[in-house]
Amino acid sequence: MPRIPIFKLGSSVESPPPRLATYWPALSLEGLQLGIDNVRHDVWLSPSFCKAAGSHLGHLIAKYGKVETVMSADATGSSSGNRGLSKFLPVFAKRNADLKPLLLGLHKAVLNRAKAEGNLAIDLLGRAAILKFLRTELNAQFANTLERCRATLKGYEGVRQQKAFEYRETVASFQIAKKNIIRQTGQELFRILREIERETLATTRRSLFGEKPSADYQVFLNQLIFWKKVATPTFRLSTTF
Rounded to 5 degrees, what are φ and ψ at 171? Predict the structure, then answer.
């Protein structure tokens, strides 16, 4: 039976441990006019897009937070006389399938604007603005969903104690799991953005601008971009692409 060497005599050369370093991603926005403060770039997103995207995010947060039953609860018979929030859930469910074309349409509009003005930096700025809006809206929609759940709980005060207890437990778990819910929703957004990039935007960008270096676009390929703290881009986002 062959022997398996366990110890080896003589000096051994160990490879040095890898060196870790931090870096801050940066976008090249040359040729773009600064905003009214002469420091940042002003970006305007249409109110219709902001409203529709917010509705989609609210649905996703309710889904991953497992509070859909609370939001759809009918509190008509409660002492407060509230009608509940059941009307919101079906609307979210219908609109959720349209989130991908909604984002695709806006990204294509930004890319066409960049082509019309002959400056690819406009596309980079537009993408960064959309990303910043989505990151901000994640927390805003979480707070909005929590407020709606609390409104439903108030409708159950004094009546239907068993159901009220179940809903309170559900809402409490929703609050505790905030980071995980934001992470799951961000992962879903990242998946959609990667799909529209692979299926449409990358090809369209090449057809409009040719095979230009796309190192700046690597910033948008980080899977942690929606739920890890990152540097805020130097532009002011308003609510027109």
Answer: -70, -35
Residues 6+ apart with CB under 8 A from 232: 132
Backbone torsion region of residue 211, taken as left when φ is above 0, otherwise alpha when ψ lies between -120 and 50, otherwise beta: beta
Tokens of 207: 């057809």
Q: What is the token pair recorded at 91?
A: 């609307």
Least Cα distance to 121 among 194, 39, 214, 28 occurs for: 28
Burial classification of residue 2, based on how many CB atoms lie within 10 Å of its CB (0-12 exposed, 13-18 middle, 19 or more buried):
exposed
- Contact 53/133 with Cβ under 8 angstroms? yes
**Which residue carries 């930096």 as its tokens?**
121
- CA-to-CA distance for 163 and 88, rounded, in angstroms? 20
**Whole-number Å distance between alpha carbons of 65 and 78:** 25
Q: Residue 7 is encoded by which pair of tokens?
A: 């110890």
Helix (H) or strand (E) holding 63: helix 47-64
Helices (H), the chain: 47-64, 68-71, 88-96, 99-117, 121-154, 161-176, 178-196, 202-209
Pairwise CA distance, residues 222 & 241, whole Å: 24
pLDDT digits (tens, 9 = 90+) for 135-188: 999 999 999 999 999 988 888 777 667 888 888 899 999 999 999 999 999 999
Measure the N-to-C terminal CA separation of the chain; round to a whole number of Å: 74
Q: Among the listed ranges 12-26, 49-63, 196-210, which one has the minimum average pLDDT value?
A: 12-26
Query: How many C-beta neighbours within 10 Å does residue 110 have?
Result: 21
Cα distance between residue 192 and residue 103, in whole Å:
8
* Cα dihedral 113, 114, 118, 120 in deg (nearest 10): 180
127, 149, 119: which is closest to 45 by C-alpha?
127
